[in-house]
Amino acid sequence: MKDQDPVPHPGWSGERDATTDSPVCPQAMPYFPEKGDAIFGQEDWIVGAVYCTDDFKLTHQLNADFDRLLPLIVSCNWLPKDKRAEFVQKVKSFYLNNQPVGEDNLEGLIDSGKVMGGTTVLNGLMYCRGDSSDYDEYEKLGATGWGYKNVLPYFLKSEHNLQYNSSQNHARGGLLTVSHYNDLPDLGHTLLAAGRELGYPTDVDIGHGRLREGFYRAQMTTRNGARLSAAKAFVRPFLHRSNLKVLLNAQVMRVLFNEHNEAIGVQYMKNNRTHNLYAVKEVIISAGTIMSPVILMSSGIGNPDHLQEKELAVVDATLQVYGTRKLRVIDASVLPDVPSGNLMAPTIMVGEKGADHVKTTWSCTP
Ligand SMILES: Cc1cc2nc3c(=O)[nH]c(=O)nc-3n(C[C@H](O)[C@H](O)[C@H](O)COP(=O)(O)OP(=O)(O)OC[C@H]3O[C@@H](n4cnc5c(N)ncnc54)[C@H](O)[C@@H]3O)c2cc1C
């Protein structure tokens, strides 16, 4: 058994596949909940490592269509209590002094929201899809069906734009309200006037996939003047559904496989204990651009060099992980390159499109 296996899978002998290094699990074993734990056994889908934009969009989409769903695993408060204050202090001084603190190297620190809604609870709210050529380039790189004409319907699907309502580029009726900031301070008016005077366009709409130089009043993901996180837009309104379960403060450690490289569930850590959770249909990993590949690697899928060499594009066009069955990655880590705008809208688009791929696989109406 490897060092990182704190509690063995009850059905796992410790044997690993010689080629993939995946755990060889003879059969899916039920998980018996601990006292005080939420009750989880087998579900149709597990969306693992959730807490981000994508998962919430995805969860909402799937939840509307399937009878048995989807424990939603959210990692909050992932540090032990006695370490939290120290960590926050280090983060603060890193940003205030712009240099690593103490002996720890925080140079690689990446912001990430650790609450329901993930990074959308702390981001800058800017709504931007990048440029259409980003997506057309992905298609040229081999991501069939990911050109701008293909992804545009998925941007429109979630959008509820209070200012623009062109049926070609913007939409109304989605769950994600997009609007200008309520207030434009005097300085904003001055900057727009200055841009106009210099001959730049001042009506640029960076939200619709055609970036150009100019000045503009940005659109944000806000509702009634307040932040609209992915959780608030896509999950909180549906928490009453009986087929949706949310598991808080749980950290996904790895995907569990059977001997056919078929994902059968996930192993997660909660209250310092390891638990297994089994999926009837699929496991979907959506932990963001950094952590999804880490979970895959912890599960024995690919070696770090190989994943890096491939720039983490380890999935096919329907987002299924090559060499495995019943395992998808649905988040921004599947994009072959970084789009030229901010990432929240593209991430939500990936969630929408990914949900349709899942529904198509399982013969449901996309
Ligand atoms: C400061 C800042 C400002 C930004 N401003 C904007 C903006 O103005 N406009 C815009 O469009 N975008 C902006 N972004 C980017 C945008 O918010 C993110 O790109 C987007 O939310 C990413 O979504 P995600 O789903 O990929 O990742 P996240 O929302 O970060 O979700 C990934 C989450 O998965 C969790 N996780 C990882 N591993 C595990 C595990 N093993 N088990 C359980 N959970 C796990 C992590 O804790 C992480 O929080 C900003 C980002 C930052 C940091």
List keywords for this structure.
17% strand, single chain, alpha/beta, 366 residues, 12 strands, 28% helix, FAD/NAD(P)-binding domain, seven-stranded mixed sheet, flavin adenine dinucleotide binding, flavoprotein, FAD, 9 helices, globular, three-stranded mixed sheet, binds flavin-adenine dinucleotide
Describe the structure in your own words.
This protein has a single domain (48-181, 218-364), classed as 3-Layer(bba) Sandwich (FAD/NAD(P)-binding domain), CATH 3.50.50. Helix content is 28%, strand content 17%. It has helices at residues 53-63, 81-97, 132-140, 148-158, 186-197, 230-235, 288-298, 304-309, 344-361; strands at 42-50, 71-74, 159-161, 176-180, 219-220, 222-223, 226-227, 245-247, 251-257, 263-270, 273-285, 327-329. Strand 9 (251-257) and strand 10 form a beta hairpin. Helix 1 runs parallel beside helix 9 and helix 4 crosses helix 9 (344-361). Mean pLDDT is 73; it is low at 1-13, 19-41, 48-53, 67-81 and 91-108. The structure holds flavin-adenine dinucleotide.
